[in-house]
Amino acid sequence: MSPEDFATDLELAAIFPDEPEMLELAQLVQAARPQAPVRPHFQGQLRARLMEAAPQALRPRGILGLRLRPAWLMGGALATLGAAAAITVFSVLHSGGDTVVQNLHPVASIPAGAVNVSPDQAITIAFNQPMDQASVVRAVHITPATAYTTSWTGNTLTISPTHHLAGSAAYVVSVDNRTAQATSGARLAAPVVIPFGTKPTPTPAPTPTAAPALSEAVLGQALAGSALVAAPNGDVVVGSGLAVSTAAATPSATSTASPSPSATAPPAATAPSASPGAGGSPSPAGSASPAAQPQLVRLGGGSATILGPQSAAVAISPAGHSVASLTPDGDHADVVVANLDGSNRRVLARSADATSPLAWTRAGIMFVGSGRVRLVDLGGVLHTPPLPAVTPGGAPLLVRDGNRMVLLSEPAAAAPTSPTPGAGPSPAATTATALVAPTIADLGDGSTLNLPAGAAAVAASSDGSTVAWVTQGPTGFVVQRATIPAALTGATLRPVTVDLGGGVRDVKALALSPTGATLAAAVIQSDGTSRLRIVGTPGHVLGTGRALDGPVFVSPDAVAGLAANGGASDVVVETVSGAGGGAAADPNAVPAGASTLLDNLIAAQSPAGSSALAALPTIGTPAPDVAALTPHGITQAYAVSATTGDGGASVVALVRLLHIPDASENSGTVTVADETVTLRRTTGGDYAIAGLAVTPLAPQLNG
Known about the structure:
Elements: H1 3-15, H2 20-32, H3 42-57, H4 77-93, E1 107-108, E2 114-117, E3 123-126, H5 133-139, E4 140-143, E5 148-153, E6 156-161, E7 170-175, E8 192-198, E9 215-222, E10 228-230, E11 236-242, E12 269-270, E13 294-300, E14 303-309, E15 313-316, E16 322-329, E17 332-339, E18 346-353, E19 359-361, E20 364-369, E21 372-376, E22 382-383, E23 395-399, E24 404-408, E25 439-442, E26 448-450, E27 456-460, E28 466-473, E29 476-483, E30 496-497, E31 504-512, E32 519-525, E33 530-535, E34 541-546, E35 549-555, E36 558-565, E37 568-575, H6 592-605, H7 610-614, H8 626-629, E38 636-645, E39 650-659, E40 671-681, E41 687-694, E42 698-699
Parallel strand pairs: 2-8, 12-14
Antiparallel strand pairs: 1-3, 3-6, 4-7, 5-6, 7-8, 9-37, 10-11, 11-13, 13-14, 15-16, 16-17, 17-18, 19-20, 20-21, 21-22, 23-24, 24-25, 25-26, 27-28, 28-29, 29-30, 31-32, 32-33, 33-34, 35-36, 36-37, 38-39, 39-40, 40-41, 40-42
């Protein structure tokens, strides 16, 4: 006999201690069916099949009239245990007995309706009189059928499951008042019924593997702390770039994954042709100076283009054809716009704070003047949207889609220093230091939504869907990411913790990919080294590379930033190596975005909150009404299974919804519903709920 068969025999013996005929029958059925390998999610699917079969198979017609359906025998010994246990509970629950009411008052260790009970927890029931222990043990039932042992300490009964209970499941422990009695002969006035739910069983952590190195390319050089933005075509614009003369050597076409500084020379610079500005500002000089003066420079395609003088802040238009820059002038700064090649340069406003950031919305260019958010359109007309005042030196970070932005109230960081004396003013850096009151604001109606107090290193995806930040918890930093609600008024953020992969001491800066699916973090590792990590699904590090300041995504799998190199900084682009981050992707794995949305749906349904459910993204004509389709009174929910289709474009998940009654409901019946959720990937790369089908709540049957 194998160890598995021996263990199964012990379980059968525990389930049928006083019924040798039933034990023999179960053993014969077990022997007739060879052990089959158990598929993933088999236990949950089997339980659902047993529940479906129970109403027909367990009709009161006597044990001899009970028929075992062929479907019950699927899966070998495990299915045998489930069917036999169902028979046992039926026969005991229908036993007769007269009830004698006395002053017996049992007290259970788990209150009725409790959720998140540990699957390893024993159940105790304390009686206020000496009990006939054998009669009480005979009266104990657990549904779904579960093997257990009992022990007594004085008048307290302890019920210990032989194996730990299933996670995310509903159980009912009951004591039949027709069977249990005290030594005096007194019986319980009513059955003891304890419905409760167990908390999810933690998923084992994956075996850590070394993250691949990111592929690195050096585009040029800039002053430390320079403003840096990415254009839609992948070019990088730096506010304090150090372009050299055309006599300089052209850059090497090769890239290196080494974190050491590159020895190749920066690309040669070209200057735009002269064009009179609408605001009277002349175009930059016709050639770059050999002294490498800091200037506004666009890097890409193996070349550097001088766009204008050194700038404190930079923003690219949503279409990617124009660039806005902030040129300090004493105690204020000019907001200047030009084509992406530096031509047609003109001043739109002269009222910006010298440390103001820039952001480009559909309505115009956003900046801060005298502590207020201002908008200037391309015709030079100023507007003041109905938004809160910001701290002088604060940095609004634009979320482009839908004219959203995030107001980051923060002190100004140290200004970059020029390596050449007399090289002109040095603008303030736009990188974050310590945030005070981050707020998401809507430029349209002025509504706002606060991020957690103390949130730092705030980043947002350029499509306006996602925001991420760092907070300090009791045991260290916590990185969180949340979907920005469609309407801010009365909404709340439902953050999900992001696992950076372990071995991280602190986080200096964050960046989100255009759709928010991928996150880049400039971190200090446990060994004290500074590195860049690009993280996909939770805990899956796509690659690590050279430490970058002010990281920004230039594509879904590439990040640009500044890497220290002597007295200046290299402008570096680090790219995930190969398709799928250097490792073969599991075609059956649920994509991170779909997994996060499924988690958010389950969290919103247990217990159900109409505002949280209404905020979940949906798609389709008509789109499913998640709040209306979710049954009322759900107390617990968990995912049974999830499968992908169309190369990850769709995900179909089975979710179990439970209502576990509390003591006020005077009911021991757990009701359940099965929910089929269809998620589809949108054109922006995120996932939305495309379908929701829910069965009516019905009593949970044994099985």
